Amino acid sequence: MNNTITLNKIYPSFHPSGEGINWDKNITDDFTFIEWWESVKAMDDEFSELLYNGFPIAKNIIQAPQIVRDFTKEPVKLGSSYRTPRWEMHRGRSTKGDHPKGKGVDINGKNVVETLITAINTKNELYRKLRSIGINAFGVYDWGFHLGTRIEKPTGEIYFWDQRKKKE
User: Fold this and answer.
1) CATH assignment of 7-162, given 3.90.320, 1.10.10, 3.30.160, 3.30.1380?
2) Rounded to an integer, what distance in angstroms lies between the CA atom of residue 10 and that of residue 83?
3) Neighbours of 140 (CB within 10 A)
4) Could you tell me which of 88, 87, 97, 89 has the C-alpha nearest to residue 42?
5) For residue 92, with 0-12 CB atoms within 10 Å meaning exposed, 13-18 middle and 19 or more buried, which class applies?
6) pLDDT tens track for 55-103
7) How many CA atoms lie within 13 A of 88 on its CB side?
8) Could you say which residues of the chain have pLDDT below 50?
9) What's the rounded Cα separation, in Å, for the pair 1 and 29?
């Protein structure tokens, strides 16, 4: 298993013509800078610094939604990626989670939840690809799925949680 996680920063690139930020620049085959930028959660006064200095995202977190997209052959939407510690505190959440470390992404899309639950239960090709890049945290919610990287358990088991509302 790949336990080495490299934190990258995603920086904007600029149009060669000098016309400003190239928001449509591809970060992966199917995900652009604007999609990653719109998934960042921060306080209003933090955005310009994040745009200027880049925002931290682990390399495998950048790869994970693309792997899901390639497997499903359906569009995948980025919900939330990097969240600043101030944002998390403002929302009443811990700053120790995956997102403030740049090691988590929330995704959704057609059949994403069902596809990832099947992958986990059957340990299919999608599961093996995600695990091979170090994804070991899987959380399912009514709105979609969380993928993350955490400290490896001694047993090698994944972190899994299901926070969907129970249907009555």
Assistant:
1) 3.30.1380
2) 14
3) 19
4) 87
5) exposed
6) 999 999 999 999 999 999 999 999 999 999 999 999 999 999 999 999 9
7) 16
8) 1-5
9) 24
3-state secondary structure 60-114: HHHHHHHHHHHHHCCCCEEEECCECHHHHHHCCCCCCCCHHHCCEEEEECCCHHH
Closest CA to 135 of 102, 153, 156, 158: 158
The H-or-E segment that residue 148 falls in is: strand 144-148
Q: Which residues contact 1 (CB under 8 A, 6 or more apart)?
A: 131, 132, 134, 152, 156
Please state the domain extents for the chain: 7-162
Grouping H, G, I as helix, E, B as strand and the rest as coil, residue 53 is: helix
Question: 112 Cβ partners below 8 Å, 6+ apart?
Answer: 68, 72, 74, 76, 144, 145
Cα–Cα–Cα angle for 56, 62, 68, rounded to 5 degrees: 150
pTM of the predicted protein model? 0.90
Q: Tell me what pLDDT residue 6 has.
A: 52
